[in-house]
Amino acid sequence: MRTLLMALGAAVAMVLATGGQASAQEGYSLGPGDVIRVTVFGEPDLSGEFEVGAGGGVSLPLIGEAALGGMTIPAAEVFIESRLADGYIQNPDVAIDVLNYRPFFIIGEVNNQGVFPYVADLNVLKAVAIAGGFTYRADKDDIVVKSGGIGDEIPVDLDSTVSPGDVIIVEERWF
């Protein structure tokens, strides 16, 4: 527990030292379908590529099932370091990279509804283009997103950012 608190304190100090600016990956929460690379420096047998399971778990060498779903990347690194430090490795140093993000979904008045691989810097307009464009019945001013596929439908415009796991719904226009 003490190791975890010390690591969390170090992470907070790092964010404060950088003025609170973090990379896009640092603010990203891991979820089912993400493929990550876990690197344990100096321990190649503990490093590798892993997929976050449906329940948010990742099966890692030595520590077993780790519930990383919902954690940011820095929090997941601290979590794994604390588990490895608890009787396995002295002063572990862990880095996590997202190799493949979970897909996004688009339904409604687009030519090809479905599941599509997430790409960097995705916005609603690009997502619609990936889905084959609008149908002639599409209401381009009535588009909503369910963030992560859960929760409320939030009205968005064509320039709004799309995150992995989002569900985009393009409504039908009524004359």
Number of domains: 2
Strand content: 25-35%
Share of helical residues: 10-25%
CATH class of the largest domain: Alpha Beta
Radius of gyration: 19 Å
Read across the widest sheet, the strand sequence of neighbours is: 7-6-10-8-9
Describe this structure as you would to a colleague:
The protein has 175 residues and is α+β, with helices and mostly antiparallel strands. It has 2 domains: 2-100, wza like domain (wza like fold), CATH 3.30.1950.10; 104-172, Outer membrane lipoprotein wza fold like (Roll). The protein has 4 helices and 10 strands, in the order ααββββαβββαβββ. The strands form 3 sheets. The protein has a 5-stranded mixed beta sheet with strand order 7-6-10-8-9, with helices on one face. It has a 3-stranded antiparallel beta sheet with strand order 2-1-5, covered by helices on one side. A two-stranded antiparallel ribbon has the order 3-4. The chain is elongated. Residues 1-23 have low confidence and may be disordered.
Write the layout of secondary structure elements.
Elements: H1 2-17, H2 24-27, E1 35-40, E2 48-51, E3 57-60, E4 64-67, H3 73-85, E5 94-100, E6 104-108, E7 114-116, H4 124-130, E8 138-146, E9 153-156, E10 167-172
Parallel strand pairs: 6-10
Antiparallel strand pairs: 1-2, 1-5, 3-4, 6-7, 8-9, 8-10
Give a quick summary of the entry:
The protein has a 5-stranded mixed sheet, covered by helices on one side. Strands 2-1-5 form a 3-stranded antiparallel sheet, covered by helices on one side.
